[in-house]
Known about the structure:
Chain B: Its main location: membrane. The structure holds two protein chains of two kinds. By secondary structure, chain A is mainly α. Chain A has helices at residues 5-17, 22-29, 31-59, 65-77, 81-94, 101-115, 129-164, 169-181, 186-200, 220-256, 260-267, 272-310, 315-324, 328-356. In chain B, α4 (76-112) runs antiparallel to α9, α6 (133-142) runs antiparallel to α7 and α9 packs parallel to α10 (237-246).
Amino acid sequence: xxxxxxxxxxxxxxxxxxxxxxxxxxxxxxxxxxxxxxxxxxxxxxxxxxxxxxxxxxxxxxxxxxxxxxxxxxxxxxxxxxxxxxxxxxxxxxxxxxxxxxxxxxxxxxxxxxxxxxxxxxxxxxxxxxxxxxxxxxxxxxxxxxxxxxxxxxxxxxxxxxxxxxxxxxxxxxxxxxxxxxxxxxxxxxxxxxxxxxxxxxxxxxxxxxxxxxxxxxxxxxxxxxxxxxxxxxxxxxxxxxxxxxxxxxxxxxxxxxxxxxxxxxxxxxxxxxxxxxxxxxxxxxxxxxxxxxxxxxxxxxxxxxxxxxxxxxxxxxxxxxxxxxxxxxxxxxxxxxxxxxxxxxxxxxxxxxxxxxxxxxxx
Amino acid sequence: xxxxxxxxxxxxxxxxxxxxxxxxxxxxxxxxxxxxxxxxxxxxxxxxxxxxxxxxxxxxxxxxxxxxxxxxxxxxxxxxxxxxxxxxxxxxxxxxxxxxxxxxxxxxxxxxxxxxxxxxxxxxxxxxxxxxxxxxxxxxxxxxxxxxxxxxxxxxxxxxxxxxxxxxxxxxxxxxxxxxxxxxxxxxxxxxxxxxxxxxxxxxxxxxxxxxxxxxxxxxxxxxxxxxxxxxxxxxxxxxxxxxxxxxxxxxxxxxxxxxxxxxxxxxxxxxxxxxxxxxxxxxxxxxxxxxx
Lengths: 364, 293
């Protein structure tokens, strides 16, 4: 009886792999592709979920913005009752407000997905909201992209060293400073920087994104002015961002220091610097890449106020202006854009991770 | 049971200087906030020091007005003390609401597992990752004349996922512990296991969840005030900063109007963060490698 068992297992195996459909077999032979597909599916679900939450959130809000809009329209356009009804109906249609909530939702999603259309902006009518948003987008991506990557790199490097040299004076200063400052909102630092560099010393500009005397374009003068004007808003994000990355990297680093492979590396006689960069750091920057993606939404939140403070022509300022003027298509558009950017960045980072981390094998 | 918890709390505090320091700073701030009506009365000497035109406006700091007066002739010191109370209140309201919601979601998701966990975790994950501040700004822009409590509720809509995430990962690690299995095989009901086995061990993480959502809530309200969208009728620290910026107080020599609220808030953030990190440091070794995060 026992002799029969091995062949039975072998038969089972061949049955397992042979009859399943071609797609499945291909996927099980390409685990990375399967992972990428599954991750992309999750991305689509998340994106759909987030956009839906945002849509219903704005349409179901107490103190209905749409009603206010209609009232404004009525006040502005009611010359005679007959025409007004027609005009209101026409505007409702233009802004995607006719029909019940579900119809509005379907129409909105259809326009968004098929044509990338966010509906007309109210203040800049008839300019579509996506034009307004795309005009602001490069500024935010530039400012936020550089500032968040820079603070991540600085924070991970300093944090790793602080964890490595724990117990030393420099390390404990860095750690305690990070604990005190890592949750301070960006705009506090921004306010202080503005006070010191713009008001007291008058060396750096505190408003706008470039010198209005210089024509925007690809020229040295313009790029220099963009950098100069971006310095203070960028710096306020970098300072606080660096502190919070220092803290979390240090927390990842300290338990790693007790691992056997580090003891082994040390016993092998490797230089301490090499152990830090090749052995320890590699194990704490990888989780930080995932954390970077997750933090982007939070960074965007803080950035709204920084942009507003500096009157920086990015998405944050666009959003606040739109809210003040009840431009609901733009408000929803900016939110959608932020959601899309953050989720896409997280997706790209997740897809990048298997390339950076040989341990990550997505077999499941 | 309460004594046991109290003793555990005391032991935890003794183990971490950072936690103790955070709690002391927090305690002092709370005391100042609690006594704010008395302090204000003492400053006013019979009259209300934060009434409009109580004194001359834009007085520089001096013996009669420690921090000077603002654009309406209100005593800045009294204003700051009262505003601190409001800021702490919002932190407490939103912190409690989001912690309660977070705990419930975390328990349902983490303990029950399966598709409920999948749905709830995905939902929590979405709320964590997407930028929610635009939603909060918009909500407060349209909801005019809201009370402090309503603002707290609004803010906690966006703050609970932070608490839920922290607590869920701990529930996941705790429910596979031998003593929970033991309780399960001895036919304890789910609710019983949750209240007697899981909850006491989760208290530090519930504390972390509370501290981080309170942090987020205070930050949220200050953020709203900075763009002039806070609740009407109350003055919190953010609003003093806002009026300092919008009136150009710094150029008029009224620097305390800006520096003191910013300093106090930074201190508050630092204290809450110290509590957070202190708790995590004390409890992490036990959990390292189990929770997976």
